Amino acid sequence: MRLIRSAVLFSSSLVLSTALASPAAAPGRLTLKYFDGRGRAETARILLALAGEEYDDHRYAMTPGKMESAAFLAAKEAGDLKANLGKAPLLITADGVEIGQSHAIERYLARELGFMGSTPVEEALVDCVAEHCRDVRDAQFRKGFSAFLRDKTDEEKAALRAEWFDTDLPAVLGKIDEAIRETGTGGFAVGNKRSLADVAIWSMLKDCYPPYAEDTAKSAEGCAALKAVVESVDAEPTVRKWVEERPETLF
């Protein structure tokens, strides 16, 4: 029996929470708790949008202009996020089971919603591609040019950013592009159906941090297979609807 059941959808597909929620979701309702931003919860939201699943998109309001949330801190202190060691995101299943860690949440949803391949081998390949995308994101952060980091001068960050987008990123994207040419076809990274791997690629290349979008697109110019995946996910009506209607957020 699937753990995901029909749920109540509030306020045009989202609930902005500025107060504490109860520690466990009401029976029959799938709940995703995260900050009022895309961040580490957006891949899960895209999977839910693709499947047409209704859910409670519980968002901790951010302090205007700051990376702070009083609602999140209050929830943490109240023990509402203990299943994820006081962190977000947190998924609460329809049966009240709490699941932490963004990648665990993504894989759980992908399996439940049919986005994890058609065979055990395809599932492993989907996992592999998703991990490649995770490695790229981690490498970009380690490069150290984020505007949120304060340990380098603007000139140092500019040099590191140029090296990443001109050299490092095109090289690794070329390798991923070559890999999915062997595992997928026709705009799919694995097999011939939509999967978490496609969403991970789309998120990495199209739904990235807005100030990096243009440079990211240029880095992927020579990657026909990756671009085909991005375009096919972009063309999904439910994804388009979600992207058009989701709130504008700080991150």
Write the layout of secondary structure elements.
Blueprint: E1 15-17, E2 31-35, H1 42-51, E3 56-60, H2 70-77, E4 90-92, E5 98-100, H3 102-113, H4 120-143, H5 154-183, H6 196-205, H7 213-219, H8 224-234, H9 237-245
Parallel strand pairs: 1-3, 2-3
Antiparallel strand pairs: 2-4, 4-5
Q: What can you tell me about this protein's structure?
A:
The protein is of the alpha/beta class and 251 residues long. The chain has 9 helices and 5 strands; from the N terminus they run E-E-H-E-H-E-E-H-H-H-H-H-H-H. It has a 5-stranded mixed sheet. Helix 1 links the parallel strand 2 and strand 3. The two termini are 36 Å apart. The N terminus is likely disordered.
Name some characteristics of this structure.
251 residues; alpha/beta; five-stranded mixed sheet; globular; disordered N terminus
What's the quick description here?
Helix content is about 50%, strand content about 10%.
As a whole number of angstroms, the C-alpha radius of gyration is 18 Å
The SSE string, one letter per element, is EEHEHEEHHHHHHH
Structural class, from secondary structure content?
A: alpha/beta
Report the sheet with the most strands, covering strand number, pairing sense and barrel closure.
5 strands, mixed
N- to C-terminal distance = 36 Å
Number of E strands: 5
Question: Roughly how much helix do the residues carry, as a percent range?
Answer: 40-55%
Number of helices: 9
Q: What global shape is seen?
A: globular
- The low-confidence runs, each spanning 5 or more residues with pLDDT under 50, are 1-26
Percent of residues in beta strands? 5-15%
Q: What strand order characterises the main sheet?
A: 1-3-2-4-5
Round the mean pLDDT to the nearest integer and report it: 89
